[in-house]
Amino acid sequence: MNKILSLFDEVAVLAYLKKKLLPLFPEFNDIKKVKIKPYKEMIWETTYHVVIGFQVYFLTPEDKEERTLIICSAHSDEPRENVYLALKYLWAKGLNQKGIDLPRPLFYSKRFNGTFYLALEGENLLYYIKNKDIAVVEQLVVSSAKLFAQLHSFAVEEEVNFNPSNARIKTIIPGVENIYQGMTARYGNKYTADLKKIYDYFIAQEEKFFASGAPLKLIHGDAHPENIIKTAENRIGLIDFTDLCFADFARDLGTFLQQLEYKIMTKIDDRELADRLKKLFLDNYLLATGTTLDDNLKNRINTYYNWTAIRTATYWFLKFEPDENKGVHLLEVVKNNLKLLHDEK
User: What CATH number has the domain bearing residue 147?
Assistant: First the structure.
């Protein structure tokens, strides 16, 4: 039996969490019950990739129940201890202040290769985009710019380089060679040649930056609207620290700009709004950091913008139930943006 299945058994989970959590929450006497809510449930014979929510009902000394949401992010093969270490580091650095909320790291389980943390509660930026709550979207976009500015301000400390392989496009999971293999296996040679040319361009652009000796920054690495949470009035939360690493800060900017635009266009189809909010984000980031948007930075942001679009394209191409048309659309957008392949028909 796959060992991760025990985390989907309420009896087993109750016993496990009593052992692990009660020492961390001395203000409670016991855990009465646990309700399990899977967010990601990809389980095979011996491997797995899961994100599980546990509604934990603690008992106070007065025998009253208090509900707390605990999350476990676990993977049979990919790193997860880095998430626990990253959260501990960011808490120690005080990022969870000045209107910013972070998940509270609880413990890392070597057995499950999973990190357990106290969840943030609230809706994400994508929720407000879908619901066309533009006032809240604007507020979160401005707050996101300031949040990333704060994150990027931390000094690089090599001893806390949590995910070095994630710092470069070439080696970010699953790795470009695995992408090529997956695309060829599913679609033959229909798209692989184009993807190789595009990725070669991205990698060459990124290598110029690393070779320049420009300072690296601590980046989130997965700056999507889904990872931005409105936790309270005038408070913003950031989640999913799997990809936290030292790299070019332009990656967070390009990723956020592309995904903000993509989600606005796919959910409410408003080009003027997408362009205005992209400008709002970038202007506020530049103001918060005192950064000048010169040609070099523009090029780096554009590289990561297009790379994020290609990552989304390959997601649609390679997911369990693929949507080839969505993948093709994004591939063509990037080809047009880069003007690499237009004349090679």
Answer: 3.90.1200.10
Q: Pick left, alpha or beta for residue 343 (phi over 0 → left; psi -120 to 50 → alpha; otherwise beta).
A: alpha
**Parent domain of 33:** 3-118
Residue type, 327: G
Final residue of a structural domain among 118, 143, 170: 118
Which residue, 222, 258, 231, 256, is CA-closest to 136?
231
d(CA 263, CA 52): 25
Q: Are 111 and 154 found together in one domain?
A: no
Q: Determine how many CB atoms are found less than 10 A away from the CB of residue 157.
A: 11
Over the stretch 85-138, which tens digit does the pLDDT of each residue have? 999 999 999 999 889 999 999 999 999 999 999 999 999 999 999 999 999 999
Give the C-alpha separation, 117 to 238, whole Å. 13
Encoded amino acid at 56, one letter: V
Strand pairing partners for 66? 58
Residue 343, domain member (yes or no): no
In this structure, is residue 27 part of a structural domain? yes
Q: For the full predicted model, state whether its pTM sits above 0.85.
A: yes
Which residue, 334, 123, 151, is CA-closest to 236?
Answer: 123
Question: Residues 223, 317: one domain?
Answer: yes
